[in-house]
Hints:
Helix content: 40-55%
CATH topology of the largest domain: Rossmann fold
CATH superfamily of the largest domain: Glycogen Phosphorylase B
Number of strands: 15
Strand order of the largest sheet: 1-4-3-2-5-6-7
Largest sheet: 7 strands, mixed
Number of domains: 2
Radius of gyration: 22 Å
Structural class: alpha/beta
Low-confidence stretches: 1-11, 404-414
Amino acid sequence: MTGSGSADGPAVxxxxxxxxxxxxxxxVVYGITVPQSAATLLRGQLGWFRTQGWDVHLVTSPGGxxxxxxxxxxxxxxxxxxARETRPLADLVALxxxxxxxxxxxxxxxxxxxxxAGLLGTLAGWLARVPVRVYVMxxxxxxxxxxxxxxxxxxxxxxxxxxxxxDVVCVSHSLREEATALRLxxxxxxxxxxxxxxxxxxxxxxxxxxxSAADRDAVRAGWGAAPGDLVVGFVGRVAFDKGVQDLLAAFxxxxxxxxxxxxxxxxxxxxxxxxxxxxxxxxxxxxxxxFDLDHVYVGIDxxxxxxxxxxxxxxxLEAALAEVPSITTTATGARDSVVPGVTGWLVETGDVDGxxxxxxxxxxxxxxxxxxxxxxxxxxxxxxxxxxxWSGLEQLYRSGSPTPPGSRSASRNx
Length: 414
């Protein structure tokens, strides 16, 4: 079940003043449901903790880009199958495996996120008596529930994950606010947001070389964009909860404008294919998902994320590094990702006319788009450095009170 890739590091004090349960270096176990999420949401974080003297382990499902994660982060990986959807028997088997693994590893800290790994990991961590159990709340699936029964089940799972954790990290301030309003926190819970938020920050060292190497004109020509076109890009799952139906509806009437739509990502809701086809040659589709998006961000003028729910959208930060501003919504998490009128534009969630108006404004004011793009990059560089998130987590692991610049903590009243 295991594959190694860890390296020795200097001995460091144990979490929260404790002697490390494993002796020598303190041990942290990360849990995330699928390798694709580990490759993006934890990129660089695992390796950084290793260099800080931690014995780092990752628990995730097998397959995907897992070998690349091991090579890049040089940590120990434990392949533990977890289904993203509810499967009672498979979930029970996964829980037993989690408990057995944690009792063998005896970690000082457990960090889990994404719904299934969050639930199974916090429950197993509680059963195995892991002293520090951190639940990273990266979004609220219950906001996308399609029935009252499903919403109730998702609420209960989220509440249980929070209740079994010793610490909760929310990836945005609005996410913490929404979770508080939904009564997901108890009287003793003190959920924190690290700095300005996000799962992992954004690293210019990863993106800038690719941006510099990309040929913008060639990329746009490959999409069929004319030199004067404003290219509006969407990056992510082509799904209802990402609001793609709203973007397609807003884009449809804009036939009088020199504007082109790029949709990059797998189609999850097949009902959307008809609306995409109806736009004809004004839309470019790229369904093959890729982690190398440098050329995509270089080629577009504006990112549009009309999402219905988020934790904190990483694509907005990635685009910002390429000096691309974003149009997004007032949905949970999304509204934290731009400064309205400065680094991008906000419209009400589900407001098709508002999206169309924002796109028209961008077509009319190309210099304003460029100015917003430069401001977006400046904000990404100043407020979303990965090391700010990582050092805040390490402080949480050790003391329970992270205080990097801009960090705030809160408890639910009543």
